[in-house]
Amino acid sequence: MNPPDALDGLFRIDAAGCADGTGFALAPASLLLRCSGPARLEVLAVGSPEAVSRHEAAGGACRLQRPHSILLPALVNAHAHLDLTHIGPQPFDQQGGFTGWIGMIRERRASGILPGIQSVRRGVGLCLMGGAAAVGDIVAGGPEAAQAQLRDGRLSGAAFLELLGIGPREPVAIERVRSWAADIRLGGPNGWGGLAVGLQPHAPYSAGMKLYQVAADLCRAAHAPFATHLAESRDEHELVAEGRGPLRDFLDSLGLWTTSLASCFGRGLSPVQFLYPVLRAIPTLAAHVNDCSDDDLNLLAQTRTSVVYCPRSASYFGHHADFGPHRYQDMLSVGINVCLGTDSIVNLPPQHADRLSTLDEMRFLWARDRFNPAKLLAMATIHGALSLGLDPNRFTLATPGAAYGGEGRRVAGIIGVDASDTDPALHPLIRVLESCSLPEWLPLPPEAAMEEGG
Ligand SMILES: [Zn+2]
């Protein structure tokens, strides 16, 4: 059934169940919503069908029957590269390894503003297909390209301007980011739809420490989000700890390997230890952290770092063969905010490339690890929202014990997952995880609130 055309009004959804990342779950369940324009959706009541029928506004609501669907809050995809969407899924070349893969991306990245816009727009559409209302998107090409790509306004979250500059190229990169910060407003709102603008020094092997520090200072002053790739691959570990390996050769081939760069690396530090001075100075959204010793885990726990785990990306590259299973469960148990991301479409299975969905990441972890379903949903909602500076309450459905008054509570969106391919006796969230269905927006896809100039 197509969603109703009207944007304004009251909607009641009667469903097989509902759940959120706080541990709340109910089956069957009804939800009473008020929609006032595309950017404002409020939950007026959530509960059993009988309880929702007793709400004073229930009588006038447009009814949507979803007897086979489980309702969830909108998801967060905390790490994506929407500007790589045009490349599509690609097989991983074991021979070329991680460093060879980076070379492939460098060659195939779209150049020019228009192809970039088309690629990102397609990526935004794939995020919405996947049930995400918010994204942490890494954008190359500087603010002008990024703004053109992202002002579409359907997603909230953060756009991180990617910073590359190491060795002889680092001073130019520092000048460039300073001039960007003078020209645009870091943080938000800033007219980029619902996205705050942050900075992302790419990784310890592609951005120098001074560039990291300058970017961190700029973000801290503007209360802007800050991200990086960290502790992703064996090649990165080898470069940082020992000053050698494929990434050193790669930097050498670009004419970037100098004696002063050589003296930065090769001091026996892990990537997390290497970046610790930055992690201590600013809350950082660190993508991957596949490489994480006990000592690294303790260091991360002493900072306000959020880790974005991208399970299918880690599996695509085979990082577990080098580092063992990802330590997301250990990270969570020491209080690190672990969220989920898809990474780019390039490392997703072709059969799932019609969407970019952290629901697929949850299903992957459920199938492999049988990890706690409510915690998996928290990673794809509440934790992701926290990592991007969003209000986590917009990514939950229920406040335990609360009776919603006339105001209701705002949510970023509601998705329904048709679970008719699963056993109705199962817990509603397990049904979501075992189903193969794509999410459906109810009553309509989100549109980020455009606070200013959007
Ligand atoms: Zn990435």
Summarize the structure.
It contains 18 helices and 16 strands. With 454 residues, it is an alpha/beta fold.
Description:
α3 (113-129) crosses α4 (142-150), α10 packs parallel to α11 and α15 packs antiparallel against α16 (373-380). The protein has two domains: 9-74 and 393-441, Urease, subunit C, domain 1 (Roll), CATH 2.30.40; 75-380, TIM Barrel (Alpha-Beta Barrel), CATH 3.20.20.140. Strands 1, 2, 3, 4, 5, 14, 15 and 16 form an eight-stranded mixed sheet that branches. Strands 6-7-8-9 form a four-stranded parallel sheet. Helix content is 36%, strand content 21%. α5 (170-183) links the parallel β8 (156-163) and β9 (194-201). The chain has helices at 49-53, 97-108, 113-129, 142-150, 170-183, 209-222, 234-242, 246-253, 259-264, 271-281, 294-301, 311-317, 320-323, 328-333, 358-369, 373-380, 382-387, 428-434, and strands spanning 9-19, 25-26, 29-35, 41-47, 62-73, 75-80, 132-139, 156-163, 194-201, 227-230, 285-288, 306-309, 337-340, 409-411, 414-418, 439-441. With 454 residues, the chain is of the alpha/beta class. Residues 1-6 and 450-454 have low confidence and may be disordered. The chain is built from 18 helices and 16 strands. Zinc ion (ZN) is lined by residues 79, 81, 138, 229, 287, 343.
